[in-house]
Amino acid sequence: MDACSRNVESNQTGLHERLDEVVQRHLAHRFLKPYQEHSLAAFKQLEKQVERAGKPLIFDSCCGVGASTAQLAELHPEALVIGMDKSEHRLSRHHAHTPTEGENYLLLRVNLNDLWRLAEEAGWALSHHYLLYPNPWPKSVHLQRRWHGSAVFPSLLALGGQLQLRSNWPLYLQEFARALELAGHGSSLQQINPERPITPFEEKYQASGQPLWRLDSDLGSA
C-alpha cells in the first residue's frame, strides 16, 4: 500500500461553535424533504430482499467499493449486511449482487438521506450500523454536511443498533459523540491500530502513519 495520504486539514480547532444549536434544531423538527423517485423504487426492491432473507439487518453506510461490506458479512454470518453508497463508480469496483443461498450481503447505490428515512418509516430496527470513513467535510462552513449535523441525523438514531464510526479525523468523532449526547446516547471513543484494515481508506491511512479512531454507541437493540 502506497503510504501517501495527507492528514485532514480544517479551519476548526475544536467542536463547531454552532454544533449544539444545529443538532438540537434537527432533533426538534422532522426532516420533510420529498423523496426522490429512484429512492422509492430502490427501497421497494430492498424491502422484498430483506423480507426474503429474514435475517437481522446491518447497514454499512458510505461503503465505497464494498470491501467493508464483504468483511462485515464474514464477521456477521447470521445477518444480512447492506452496503450503501451514492457513487456508482465506487460500487462498480465491487461485484454488486443480490444474495443467493449461502450469501449474506448486497450493495446498493442510494441516497442515504432518503434510505434512512424510508427504513425508519418502515419500522426497521438494525442490529448494527457502520459508518466507516465517510467524508468528514472538514471545512467549518460544511457542518451540516456532516452526518451528525444533517437533518437526517434523527433517522440514523431511530434505526438503532450498535453504531460504530471510524475516522482519521478525531474532531469528526468528537462532534458526533457530542451530538449523540444531546440526543441522550452515550458513546466511547478510542484510538485503534487494526490488524486487518476494514476499508481501503483505513489501510491507506494506517500505511501513512496516521492515527485512527473509533466511536461506538448503543442506540438500542433490534
- State the shape: globular
Using the CA coordinates, give the radius of gyration: 17 Å
Largest sheet: 7 strands, mixed
For the termini, the CA-CA separation is 38 Å
Category from helices, strands and their pairing? alpha/beta
- Count up the helices: 8
Strand content: 15-25%
Residues in helix, %:
25-40%
User: Using DSSP, what is the number of strands?
Assistant: 7
Instruction: Pick out the low-confidence regions.
Output: none
The sequence of SSEs as H and E is HHEHEHEHEHEHEHE
**Average pLDDT, to the nearest integer?**
92
Describe the strand arrangement of the main beta sheet, using strand numbers: 3-2-1-4-5-7-6
What does this entry show, briefly?
This protein is of the alpha/beta class and 222 residues long.
General description of the model:
The protein has 222 residues and is of the alpha/beta class. The longest helix is centred in the N-terminal third of the chain and has 17 residues, at 37-53. The protein has a seven-stranded mixed sheet with strand order 3-2-1-4-5-7-6, sandwiched between helices. Helix 1 (19-28) packs across helix 7 (170-182). Helix 6 (153-158) links the parallel strand 4 (126-132) and strand 5 (162-167). It is 35% helix and 18% strand. It starts with 18 loop residues before the first helix and ends with a strand.
